Amino acid sequence: MKRLTNISLKAIALVSIVATVLSCDGPKAIPDKDLVNIFHDAFLANAYISESKTSEDSLLLYEPILERYGYNVEDMQFTVRTIASRKSTRLSDLVSQSSSILEEEAKLYNYQLMVLDTIDNVAERNYTRIVAQDSLIRVRKLSDSTKLHIVISDLIPAEYNIMFDYYIDTLDENRNSRVEAYFKTKDDKTSMRHTMMLSRYREGKYNRKFTADTSHLELHVNMFYHPTNEDVKRPDIKITNFKVTRVIPTEQAVDSLYIEQMGALIFNHKIMTSFGDKKTPATKTPTTSSKGAKTSNTKPSTKNNAKATTKSSTKTTTKSGSKSTSKSSEKSK
Fold first, then answer.
1. Cα(213)–Cα(251) distance, rounded to whole angstroms?
2. Where in the chain is the domain with CATH 2.60.120.260?
3. Were 79 and a residue from 30, 31, 164, 282 both cysteine, which residue would form a disulfide, CB within 3.0 to 4.6 Å?
4. Cα 271 from chain centroid?
5. Cα separation of 323 and 186, whole Å?
């Protein structure tokens, strides 16, 4: 209610600014319906100017709004004076109508934003993939340390989130243990390399995001990294909940979701099979001879039909006539 009052006060002040301009001869009164729409558009223009923090002459701002509905500033001034002299409708009533329209539009826009946000979340969840996962990796021998080097190939432009829990036991003879993650490019170069020292004798976590582009070929995660100048000794490290998740950009995920849903609607089994449910007369397709010429499937000519009909009728009458003759001769005997 307080918000509505503030909007109403701003609207009345807005009308007062517009009405201060001197008018020419022959102004016309603006109908209440158009006046409500003018106030509505003026509210939005004023809000935009306020949010953008730009200074704009009020006359230059509101004149285009009036012209959109076929009026000018002089008409507005005349209409305000007319409304002030009326008893049936007050200016505040028209302002309240404009405020109500804005409130309803705000609810609709907020709902649409909520729907779009929901679509984004659904798309991201639907197109998020776990590209590498292992619940437990335990290494106690130096020869098994290769298990701690994970390579993920066939990358696509997306965000890759690496996470795992680790614990370095007291039996581990290495003083400095690190994790190293980087991209390998198509020209066999290292890109976006990141290293981190791992804590000893207590549980720790690693979580890092990498963004791949078209130049990246592989993602390397080495959880037992030691520089070449260090002596590598017997390890005792436990990795749990290792997971690399791929998340494609939101816009791409939404586009993929729309395409998938459109495909589900267009190529729906019920829709596709419904076309075959209609009983349509079967039509013969033209066949092709060995020479490539099309063979016509039209019916035989009327002459051939007549000949065939005559032959068949002649045979029928002959057989029936012979039978009837033999029967009549037997009776006469």
1. 15
2. 131-247
3. 30
4. 23
5. 95
SS3 annotation, 8-74: HHHHHHHHHHHHCCCCCCCCCCCCHHHHHHHHHHHHHHHHHHHHHCCCCCHHHHHHHHHHHCCCCHH
Strand partners, 108: none
HSE at residue 4, side-chain half, CA atoms within 13 A, is 14
Q: Return the pLDDT at 6.
A: 56
Q: Can you spell out the DSSP letters for 77-105? A: HHHHHHHHH-SS--HHHHHHHHHHHHHHH
Q: 172 — phi, psi (to 5°)?
A: -70, 125
Contacts for 90 with CB less than 8 Å, ≥ 6 apart: 83
The burial class, CB within 10 Å (0-12 / 13-18 / 19+), for 202 is exposed
Distances (CA, A) of 90 to 36, 73, 288: 12, 20, 84
Both structure tokens of 262: 């459109």
Give pLDDT, residue 120: 73
Quick one: how many helices (H) and strands (E) in the chain? 8, 10
CA distance 127 to 182: 23
Instruction: Provide the CATH number for the domain formed by 131-247 in this structure.
Output: 2.60.120.260
Q: Could you report the per-residue pLDDT of 165-211, keeping only the tens digit for each?
A: 999 999 999 988 999 999 999 999 999 999 999 999 999 999 999 99
Residue 4 is predicted with a pLDDT of 45
Nearest to 89, CA basis, from 163, 1, 20, 30: 30
DSSP classification of residue 146: G
Query: How far apart (Å, rounded) are the C-alpha atoms in residues 175 and 230?
Result: 10
Residue 298 has a CB neighbour count (10 Å cut-off) of: 7
Residue 288 tokens, joined: 């092709």
Average pLDDT over residues 46-71: 73
Question: 52, 38, 39: which is closest to 7 by C-alpha?
Answer: 39
In whole angstroms, give the CA distance from residue 234 to residue 239. 16
